[in-house]
Design brief:
- This protein is an alpha/beta fold.
- The chain has helices at about 55-60, 60-65, 90-95, 115-125, 130-140, 165-180, 185-195, 205-210, 230-240, and strands at about 5-10, 30-35, 45, 75-80, 85, 105, 150-160, 200, 210.
């Protein structure tokens, strides 16, 4: 099985993470970027202009639709803030053993409900409150159940040319363009609507596999106002004493 590691670097809110692929150089590595002057030795650079999109949405093109760009085989998406810690070929072999699924991701380390995710995105200024509220109203009106699962979108393993996975990716990007740019929000909704046969990764410990906060985003200025700051501080303290 062939495997491609890939990531994206758009805009100027954070630096390029040159540790994103870890120390693993024995597989193909690809970076999609709107920066024309990026130099990343040993990594294929795909220059991808914004074409009128904001950097957040432009970065989702390849993330959600690798079937358009990477050819045959498997791909492992790594967010620019992450650092791979485990051999990627070992990951592929372990995760796919005994499974017919073509899409794998870790379960969210803290939440399992899209409605909680919508609230968290609003509180942290990660998207326009009006868009997030519209999504909440739509999901509830259509009867989407709560606590139906969330993925960690910074790490996605998939056989991207699988027809169901490719179709899902096209629809996923449509929702990112039309609605919230937060793809972790539209993922469970579209799984519920389209029935994508995906699996949570349970055969690996995510902490031993990938460091998802290698670049600290705690001090990054969000595009929208933060809300409930005192409550957020109390919640962070609670999770810290719980070790989460």
């Amino acid at each position: 099985m062939t495997l491609t590691l890939y990531s994206a670097y758009y805009g100027s809110k954070e630096p390029l993470n040159r540790e994103v692929f870890g120390a693993f150089t024995h597989v193909r590595r690809v970076l999609f970027t709107d920066h024309a002057d990026v130099d990343f030795p040993g990594v294929e650079i795909v220059h991808d202009p914004l074409d009128g999109l904001d950097p957040a949405r432009a970065s989702r093109r390849a993330k959600l639709m690798p079937h358009r760009y990477l050819g045959e085989g498997w791909s492992l998406w790594l967010d620019n803030k992450s650092r791979l810690k485990r051999d990627p070929l070992e990951i592929l072999e372990t995760v796919t053993a005994g499974s017919d699924a073509a899409f794998f991701a870790f379960a969210h380390f803290r939440r399992d409900c899209v409605y909680q995710e919508l609230q968290t995105c609003w509180e942290n200024g990660l998207d326009d409150y009006r868009i997030l509220r519209e999504r909440e109203r739509t999901y509830r009106a259509e009867g989407m159940p709560g606590h139906s699962g969330l993925i960690e979108g910074h790490f996605i393993l998939r056989r991207h040319q699988d027809p169901a996975v490719a179709h899902f990716g096209e629809r996923w990007f449509e929702h990112v363009l039309r609605y919230s740019r937060r793809d972790q929000i539209s993922f469970p909704y579209l799984v519920w609507k389209l029935g994508l046969p995906f699996e949570f990764i349970r055969s690996l410990d995510w902490r031993e596999t990938v460091q998802h906060d290698f670049l600290d985003r705690a001090n990054r200025v969000p595009d929208f106002p933060r809300k409930h700051l005192a409550y957020q501080a109390a919640r962070r303290f609670y999770h810290s004493i719980k070790g989460r």
